[in-house]
Amino acid sequence: MEPINLYDFESRAESTVPHNVWDYISRGSQDGIALKRNRSMLESILLRPRFLRDVRKRNLSTTILGEPIKFPIMIAPASRQTMVHPDGEIATARAAAASGTIMGLSTSSTKSIEEVAQAASGPLWFQLFHCGKEETTSLVRRAEDSGYKAICLTVDTPIPSDKEMDIRNSWQTPPEAYPGNFLYKITSKTPSNLDSGISEGHHMRPPTIPLTFEQLPWLKSLTRLPIVIKGIRTAEDAALCVKYDIDGIVVSNHGGRQIDCTLSSIETLPEVVTAVDGKAEIYFDSGIRRGSDVLKALALGAKGVFIGRPIFWGLAVNGQAGVEKVLDILYRELDLVMAYCGFTSVDQIDDGILHLPLEMEYSRIPYIEEIRGLADLHAKGLISRNEFDSKRESLLGIEKQ
Ligand SMILES: Cc1cc2nc3c(=O)[nH]c(=O)nc-3n(C[C@H](O)[C@H](O)[C@H](O)COP(=O)(O)O)c2cc1C
């Protein structure tokens, strides 16, 4: 029988790829606490369906940084996709275009920026790991010249985070999955420390150098493209992104792959939404497996979501067609759950349909509640925008940075 949900894809994919590749894709860091919590917290948010509404005609389309897409589900940047299918990112890009959505291409992709741009007829984002001024400048220019629509800087991997199972498996990137953007750099003179990492994003490409907030204006000066920051998890960092005039934020814990023992990604979404207060678009990833998960993220303030591991599952099972099917399943599930919640378009979705678990009902950070209170006062016209902004920024400690 054809897979009918993403878990069917997961179990089929597991039986088709070598166990060490499977471990590399599916595991989380250390004890997998953040990885498991991504799912358990999404599952603990329940829905309050609404009826007696005419929901026969539904429209799931939206815009992301002005780009129209057919539904608010996008493809997260993920490295080395030829590990599970020879066409790798080319197949994924074609599936994204056929499905009407955006694909993020990783700095560590197997297929290069240019190859993917040539194969894709839909919108692409380029995900950037900062690799030093010279290399980053070149990557950003290549992406802009190839027609990518945004630069998505991943910030939640300041140093490599080796997964324990990869150490046990003596994991090495298989030659067919070497990063395509840097292949020309692999020579007999390539220093061995660039060729033997076991962490994602660290194979045979210059190591990631963490950027600082103060360097964001430099990054922005390289390109006319919008800048999206991926991996933000706190109100404080989100407010700083706004201060540095960032266009979008992906609230993400990297699918639980980098640092363990954090909150789940969905738990961090509300505080980021509060801190940003509409000044940048907010997207969400980590743990999306059902259309209802998408609805929950949108209800908490995300403009769209990304999926990571399910792309590998679709690719492993059936290449481009598999990725299209994964996206189609999520599209249909979102469509169904929207109808049951009384929505006919994604911009109607609000948090009134959510029943939050107690631990998400109130923020653990007292000033988040205070900012929400101020936002209410501003909405009622009781304080000015300037007053609201300056109090919000002082509560978030922005001026101290
Ligand atoms: C095998 C694998 C490779 C990844 N590579 C990258 C990467 O190169 N850059 C990046 O920003 N995120 C990377 N990610 C993280 C995804 O972009 C995304 O944040 C995460 O997979 C979302 O969680 P999910 O897998 O539960 O959907 C990777 C994820 C996986 C599973």
Please report which band the strand proportion falls in: under 5%, 5-15%, 15-25%, 25-35%, 35-45% or over 45%: 5-15%
Shape: globular
Question: What structural class should be given to the helix and strand makeup?
Answer: alpha/beta
Going by CATH, the architecture of the largest domain would be Alpha-Beta Barrel
Integer-rounded radius of gyration: 21 Å
Query: Helical region count?
Result: 15
Number of self-contained structural domains:
2
**Can you give the mean pLDDT?**
93
CATH top level label of the largest domain: Alpha Beta
Major sheet attributes: 8 strands, parallel
Number of strands: 12
Stated plainly, the CATH topology of the largest domain is called: TIM Barrel
Ligand names: flavin mononucleotide
Spatial strand sequence of the major β-sheet: 4-11-10-9-8-7-6-5
| Portion of residues within helices | 40-55%
Could you list the spans in which at least 5 consecutive residues all have pLDDT below 50? 190-203
Distance between the termini: 57 Å
- Succession of helices and strands: HHHEEEEHEHEHEHHEHEHEHEHEHHH
CATH H-level superfamily of the largest domain = Aldolase class I
Protein described:
The chain is of the alpha/beta class and 401 residues long. The chain folds into 2 domains: 6-355, Aldolase class I (TIM Barrel); 365-400, no CATH class. It is 41% helix and 11% strand. It has 15 helices and 12 strands. The chain has helices at 6-16, 19-26, 33-44, 88-99, 113-119, 133-145, 164-168, 216-221, 235-243, 265-276, 291-299, 309-340, 358-361, 366-379, 385-395, and strands spanning 46-47, 62-64, 67-69, 73-75, 103-105, 124-128, 150-154, 227-232, 248-251, 281-284, 304-307, 354-355. The strands form 3 sheets. Strands 4-11-10-9-8-7-6-5 form an 8-stranded parallel sheet. Strands 1-12 form a two-stranded antiparallel sheet. It is globular. The chain starts with 5 loop residues before the first helix and ends in a 6-residue tail after the last helix. The model is unreliable at 190-203 (pLDDT under 50). Residues 25, 38, 76-79, 106, 108, 127, 154, 200-201, 230, 252, 254-255, 257, 285-288, 307-309 line the site of flavin mononucleotide.
